[in-house]
């Protein structure tokens, strides 16, 4: 928006400078012509109409030069105003973006705090076994219930290490058992 207005004003300024330069170049010629005709008129060698016509051209040229200068100054003022508006708009956008960035940073800090709190809370609901292995039996069956420290929840048979089993053998099968016999 500012660029298009600026381009139009720059074109007007260039046109005004051409008009002013033309008026500046013609002004001395019209003045000299007027002064020459005035001298001739004083000597009664030319008509009053010729003198007035030359005076009219000289006056129009002076006024045209002044008007061209005024228009050029107005265009320069408009260009300056557009530049100030563009700078003000840029400053407003920069301020708005900085404010939004600060708000987002504040939100991030709040969300990070909430995340830490939720992770801490989640860690309180998560129970970890001290060893890895196979669950033998589940002792605690109340879902969502509170657990006290050192309370037995389940029995785990460790994956590594020697396993000892306490088995009950029927009397009729005792005769078939020997030390070192493999199990089935």
From TrEMBL:
> Where is this chain's protein located in or outside the cell?
Membrane
Report the domain of life of the source organism: Bacteria
Q: Tell me yes or no: is Transferase among this UniProt entry's keywords.
A: no
Q: Which GO terms describe its cellular component?
A: membrane
Q: Which residues does the annotated region (Disordered) include?
A: 88-109
Does Membrane count among this protein's keywords? yes
Membrane disposition:
Single-pass membrane protein
Keyword annotations for this protein, in alphabetical order, are:
Membrane, Transmembrane, Transmembrane helix
Return the PANTHER family for the record: MEMBRANE FUSION SUBUNIT OF EMRAB-TOLC MULTIDRUG EFFLUX PUMP, TRANSPORT PROTEIN COMB
Q: By what name is this protein known?
A: Hemolysin secretion protein D, chromosomal
What species does this protein belong to?
Raoultella planticola
Which gene codes for it? hlyD_2
